[in-house]
Amino acid sequence: MRTSAAGIEAIKRFEGCVLRTYKCAAGVCTIGYGHTGPDVTEGLSWTAAQADAALVRDLTRFELAVEDAIARPLTQGQFDAMVSLAFNIGAQAFRDSTLVKRFNAGDSAAAGAQFTVWNKVGGQVNASLLARRAAELWMFARATP
Fold first, then answer.
1. Which of 74, 86, 87, 136 could crosslink 78 through cysteines, CB 3.0-4.6 Å?
2. pLDDT at 25
3. Is position 136 annotated as part of the catalytic site?
4. Given 15, 42, 67, 136, the catalytic residue
């Protein structure tokens, strides 16, 4: 499954695009559309094309993480929401999440309720994450096949 155009636009809106490295709220060096990793160092600058290419690579990685973690069929909205969450919290945290466990157990409502759990940075509730989780929950609840 692939992230829909609407899902990609939501991730772009949530992440924003910054073409010079910065420290995200968690203190991690970040560039482009929320891209992190060993290739991101302080003082790095990218073009918009580099940011777009990294987003495509990152989306593929998180799409695979969702596909590997989820053991039952997903609607497009559920997939988009889960990819957005995994993109933000990391593939391993997503795989280990109660959201995945509840979804795989067949309880979509309980899984959806888990989006709002991921609302903190450094132990503090973050307003941006609250808004993002509300949007992800909306995507998740859409009934598109």
1. 74
2. 80
3. no
4. 15
